[in-house]
Design a protein that fits this description.
The chain is mainly beta. Among the domains are: 28-121, Cadherins (Immunoglobulin-like); 130-224, Sandwich (Immunoglobulin-like), CATH 2.60.40; 238-323, Immunoglobulin-like (Sandwich), CATH 2.60.40; 330-425, Immunoglobulin-like (Sandwich); 428-527, Cadherins (Immunoglobulin-like), CATH 2.60.40; 532-655, Jelly Rolls; 847-1026, Alkaline Protease, subunit P, domain 1 (2 Solenoid). A hairpin with a 5-residue loop joins strand 44 and strand 45. Helix 2 crosses helix 6 and helix 3 (694-711) crosses helix 5. The strands form 23 sheets. It has an 8-stranded mixed sheet with strand order 63-65-69-71-73-77-76-75, with no helix packed on it. A 5-stranded mixed sheet has the order 48-50-55-52-53, with no helix packed on it. Strands 58-57-59-61-60 form a 5-stranded mixed sheet.
Length: 1161
């Protein structure tokens, strides 16, 4: 080529020649960079290709990650796996079936490379499964069904799911396949094979499939021999009759024929032997059911029997039960004769028998010439006359007062008869006590009660009791109660009676101070069969008592219960005390009383809950007969507290009486051991009520106000921990001290649940409000009104008759539950009389509460809605008024009911249609009372009273001071306690003034305004007619025990025969006039003879309220004229003849020749 160069003007040219020289180039790879190949491929999987510009020959080679797994033909470039790839088991370095290699191409001088990826793909394969479990097994004989088995296992190259099955084999039917688990259907015995050919090789063929391929396996189960030991048939428990030795023939065998030996061990092994040849088990000495020889004395013998063949031992714990055989007939220990006082109405004789087998005995009357005259209690053997015997009129077959009967005792299989002669003895029947108790008794040994003498006296005189006779020196008697006790508890095995036969003979005497009767008594002491055994916990107990003695026993284990049988008499009140005694006493006793049928009557845990943990029951029997006492322990105590010695004592106790309010208050104040807060009137106690609901807080504040009104304590509300803390988060209602130091409370709590408020309402006339007053009483230290907590029954748990809400808000008994008081059931909305006295004695009284002139009832200014008769309450309420001063008034003027307003302290008025609902506190003076439109009774006190009757026929009673009685409309009457001669009566300005001239002027001076009648009570006590029997002052009843006898020089008694008097006394029912002297007569037991002698009653043929069916009084006059003359001057109305019907009745009592009979209606 020519090259020119120029400078812009001139140019120059030059010719140039360029020669191209050849250079060797590397081959160019033209094949793909990837390939895909199916698994298991064994040939070429990839071919490398390349070109070379110079036409040189190209050679190939491999390198890279997975190059070692391949080969390549250097000339052709063909690539192949050294081992065919397996998709399921990839060999590439990444384990992902993607193989990485590098292909190299060379022309001898230069080379080039290319990365190649070869992917192995899956191919659907079908490889047969392979069993991996063993096929031969050795199994010891006696493998039981379900105890031998294996799990079949296999593998599958393709990972397919495998299924197993039984497909054959000589013993296929003997196997069970569940999933992959195969097992024998039954147990094996080498000596008794049950495989198909009896060679102890059980053969089965199983198969496994992956769904395409099936593989089978033969399994062989070879049973190997085992030394089995002796074969013994046990059939425990074994039952053996007493007095026999053989128990059981075991007859063991051994399949291998080895010699067998037997051994006995265990608790009672020493009492048995076993024959080395026959293997008969037997007692060494025949057992006695009544005297068991086993370790725990229950006739259940525990042993272990073992049989050995020298290699193997077979044994088992066995129990041999010894059963009772009726060996003995009943044996009577009671006498074949006894004396019985005539007129006996209760038990006349008690048959007592025992049985050597300890069987329960039943008694019956099976013969005797006088069997029809008696009944017998089949369980107790107590024999009673059908009709009380009369010595003067004997009813026995030969009329010699010796009654014959045959009593049979049966144990269910054997019987024994007792020929009994009961001799009826004469008694002094006029003026002397007559016996009610039987001439025999029965108690068990090891306790001290013996017999209870019971008698009655027709004149009501006090009876004293004494004893004498053969064995009297062994006893003591309570001369008041008649309870006879052993000085030392008797031992039936070593009797100390004179006859040495466990029949103790005494003579009992009952005297009224002038006359007496005596009766021979035989007391039989029964044997307790096994004194060491535990006392029965049911009515089969052998321990038997009456009142007046002690029994000392033991509770051996926690939960042990002892039952003691006792006989109680209807109407008698008993005290039952259970006390832990001895070196190791029962520390927390529990006492229950059951009736004969096993019904629980009453129970007690602690005499003083948590303080005195002994137990006590006071109980008045409602029926005469058998009861059961259960001695127990509190089930929440420890074993030490629940086990040990106890003493049970039963005794007569005085009948319940009414407590004075002071006595009730003293009991309340002792409720927490006499504890209280160290505070007095005017002091402050803090309270926290924030935990209560709004309704709860309202009730709590109102209740605290009631306590503050009485005590003068100031209750200050705070929101932190207080001296009294209120809550409602626990069930029920309860309260009490949380801490006590030196007898003073450090704090207390009150809980009344919200459920309680939901149930009993939240108004002031609700039981919930009463509950708050009650529980605050506990927080201040007042206990319950009796020894109860949680629940109580009136008649059982009360310890005095007048325990009720009327007396104290701390009582458990409503006015309706208490059967002794006359008051309407009403919720308590304040402190009652006894509560106020208790509060006074513990904290003092407020001097400022309602100290001005206060009116209660209608037109009230008392400042509290509970005192307002117009308060709109839905429920009946009751309260007691506490008033610190002023001139005060009870105003019940708007009531139309017949009311009684009584202004005396501690008295209750009956207002607003209720009875006994408004009381007056001790020391509170209410001066005035206003009645309503009904027939009211107004009773004053010794202050200057103004009593206003308003409408109706009202009655006023003078009580001292200078009073005014304003009768209002109606016919009104004023009553004075003395005789008319004791008073001066004057009139002035339309009023009548009555002045009491007796010493001290007990009725004071009374101005009568609008009062139509005056009655002097002493004019109607009739001492001239009834002598000392007549009422001595207003309100007293006739004392029938002092009534003169017929013929006594008394206008009433002189003309009467005793039969007529007796008839009048027994038939009178207490139909009473509305007069104080009449109202004092009890409806039960006091006869209203004075009805016939009411001088103040104008004659109108009838007396108010008198039951016309009853002859309340009778008089037989010798002369109508004499009677008219004698009584006319005394102001009596004329006498009228008795009705024909009544006269006929009396004539049946009197000789037919009696003169005219008169009565006063």
């Amino acid at each position: 080529m020519t090259i020119r160069v120029s400078d812009g003007t001139a140019t120059a040219d030059q010719t140039v020649t360029i020669t191209v020289e050849d250079v060797d180039e590397a081959p160019a790879i033209t094949s793909a960079a990837s390939a895909s190949v199916a698994e298991n491929t064994s040939g070429t999987v990839y071919t490398a290709t390349a070109t070379d510009a110079e036409g040189d020959a190209v050679t190939f080679s491999l390198s890279g990650t997975d190059a070692a797994l391949f080969t390549i033909d250097a000339t052709t470039g063909e690539v192949a796996f050294i081992t065919p790839p397996d998709f399921e088991n990839p060999a590439d370095s990444g384990g992902d079936n993607v193989y990485d290699i590098t292909v190299n191409a060379s022309d001898g001088n230069s080379s080039s490379s290319q990365n190649v990826v070869i992917t192995v793909t899956d191919v659907g394969e079908s490889t047969a499964p392979v069993f991996t479990n063993a096929s031969e097994f050795d199994v010891p004989e006696f493998e039981m069904a379900g105890t031998w088995g294996i799990r079949l296992t296999a593998t599958d190259a393709d990972g397919d799911a495998l299924t197993f099955s039984i497909v054959g084999g000589a013993d296929a039917a003997s196997f069970l396949l569940t999933g992959a688990d195969i097992e024998l259907l039954d147990g094996t015995n080498f000596e008794d094979p049950w495989d198909a050919n009896g060679d102890n090789v059980y053969e089965v063929t199983v198969a496994v499939t992956d769904g395409t391929n099936v593989v089978e396996q033969d399994i062989r189960l070879t049973i190997t021999d085992v030394n089995e030991g002796p074969e013994v048939v046990f059939s425990s428990p074994y039952s053996v009759s007493e007095n026999t030795t053989s128990v059981f023939d075991f007859n063991p065998t051994d399949d291998e024929g080895d010699p067998i030996t037997a051994t006995i061990s265990g608790t009672d092994a020493a009492l048995f032997e076993i024959d080395a040849t026959t293997f008969e088990l037997r007692f060494i000495s025949a057992p006695d059911f009544e005297n068991p020889g086993d370790a725990d004395g229950d006739n259940q013998y525990d042993i272990i029997i073992e049989f050995s063949d020298g290699t193997t031992t077979e044994g088992r714990t066995q129990t041999v039960y010894v059963t009772n055989v009726n060996e003995f007939s009943p044996v009577f220990s009671s006498s074949t004769s006894a004396n019985v006082a005539e007129n006996t109405t209760g038990v006349a004789y008690t048959a007592v028998a025992s049985d050597g087998d300890n069987d329960t005995l039943t008694y019956s009357i099976v013969g005797g010439s006088d069997a029809a005259d008696f009944t017998i209690n089949s369980s107790t053997g107590e024999v009673s006359f059908v009709s009380a015997p009369d010595f003067e009129n004997p009813a026995d077959a030969n009329t010699d007062n010796v009654y014959n009967l045959v009593i049979r005792a049966s144990d269910g299989s054997q019987t024994t008869d007792l020929n009994l002669n009961l001799t009826v003895t004469d008694q002094v029947e006029t003026g002397a006590p007559t016996f009610l108790s039987a001439a025999s008794g029965n108690v068990s040994e090891n306790q001290t009660s013996a017999y209870v003498i019971r008698a009655e006296d027709a004149e009501g005189d006090t009876i004293t009791y004494s004893i004498s006779g053969t064995d009297a020196s062994l006893f003591t008697v309570d001369s008041s109660t008649g309870e006879v006790s052993f000085l030392t508890a008797p031992d039936a095995d070593s009797p100390s009676d004179a006859g040495g036969n466990n029949i103790y003979d005494i003579t009992v005497t009952a005297s009224d101070g002038v006359n007496s009767n005596s009766q021979d008594v035989a007391i039989t002491v029964s044997d307790i069969a096994d004194e060491a055994a535990d006392v029965s916990d049911n009515n089969t107990t052998e321990v038997h008592m009456v009142s007046g003695g002690q029994y000392v026993g033991n509770l051996e284990t926690a939960g042990d219960e002892d039952w003691i049988r006792i006989e109680l008499v209807a109407g008698q009140r008993y005290q039952i005390d259970l006390t832990g005694t001895g070196a190791e006493p029962v520390e927390d006793t529990f006492l229950r009383l059951f009736d004969e049928a096993g019904n629980l009557l009453v129970e007690n845990d602690d005499i003083d809950l948590g303080v005195v943990r002994d137990s006590r029951i006071s109980f008045t029997a409602t029926e005469t007969g058998v009861y059961y006492i259960e001695v127990d322990s509190w089930d929440g105590g420890s074993t030490d507290e629940r086990t040990g010695e106890y003493t049970l004592e039963v005794s007569h106790t005085d009948p319940l009486r009414n407590f004075s309010y002071q006595e009730i208050a003293d009991y309340l104040a002792s409720g927490f051991g006499g504890g209280r807060f160290n505070a007095s009137s005017g002091d402050t106690l803090t309270v926290n009520i924030t935990a209560l609901t709004t309704a709860g807080q309202t009730l709590a504040r109102a209740a605290l106000e009631m306590w503050s009104d009485i005590t003068g304590l100031i209750f200050q509300e705070i929101t932190t921990s207080a001296q009294i803390n209120f809550d409602d988060d626990e069930d029920g209602a309860f309260a009490g001290p949380d801490g006590v130091v030196g007898g003073f409370f450090t704090s207390a709590s009150v809980n009344v649940s919200t459920a309680w408020l939901d149930l009993y309402d939240t108004t002031l006339d609700s039981y919930s409000f009463q509950t708050y007053i009650h529980e605050i009483g506990h927080a201040l230290g007042l206990g319950h009104a009796g020894p109860y907590d949680g629940s109580a029954d009136y008649g059982i748990d009360n310890i005095y008759l007048n325990d009720s809400w009327q007396a104290t808000v701390m009582s458990y008994f409503s006015q309706g539950e208490n059967t002794e008081i006359d008051a309407s059931t009403a919720f308590v909305v304040g402190l009652q009389v006894a509560d106020i006295i208790a509060a006074r004695d513990m904290y003092g009284l407020s001097t400022t509460t309602r100290s001005g002139d206060t009116t209660y009832g209608f037109n009230s200014n008392a400042g509290n809605t509970i005192f307002n008769a117009n308060n709109g309450f839905s429920n009946a309420t009751t309260f007691t008024v506490f008033d610190a001063g002023g001139t005060d008034t009870f105003d019940y003027s708007l009531s139309g009911s017949d009311q009684t307003i009584d202004l005396r302290e501690e008295a209750f008025s009956s207002v607003l249609g209720l009875r006994g609902n408004v009381g007056i506190a001790n020391g509170t003076v209410i001066e005035n009372a206003i009645g309503g439109s009904g027939d009211d009774t107004l009773i004053g006190n010794d202050a200057d009273n103004v009593l206003t009757g308003n409408g109706g026929n009202d009655r006023f009673f003078a009580s001292g001071g200078t009073d005014t009685f304003n009768g209002g409309t109606g016919t009104d009457t004023a009553y004075f306690s003395g005789a008319s001669t004791d008073y001066t009566v004057t009139t002035s300005g339309g009023s009548t003034f009555v002045t009491d001239n007796r010493a001290g002027s007990p009725d004071g001076t009374v101005e009568l305004i609008g009062v139509e009648n005056i009655v002097y009570d002493a004019d109607v006590t009739f001492p001239e007619f009834f002598g000392d029997a007549g009422p001595q002052s207003s309100g007293e009843p006739i004392d029938l025990s002092k009534l003169p006898a017929a013929g006594v020089d008394s206008p009433v008694m002189q003309p009467l025969t005793q039969d007529v008097i007796d008839h009048a006394v027994s038939s009178a029912t207490g139909g009473k006039l509305a007069r104080p002297v009449m109202e004092g007569l009890s409806d039960s037991g006091q006869s209203d003879l004075s009805l016939m002698l009411q001088k103040f009653q104008s004659h109108d043929d009838t007396l108010p309220h008198l039951d016309p069916e009853v002859i309340d009084a009778v008089v037989r006059m010798d002369s109508v004229g004499l009677a008219a003359a004698e009584y006319g001057d005394a102001g009596l109305p004329e006498w009228e003849s008795l009705s024909d019907e009544a006269g006929t009745t009396l004539e049946n009592l009197e000789p037919a020749s009696i003169p005219t009979v008169f009565w006063f209606e």
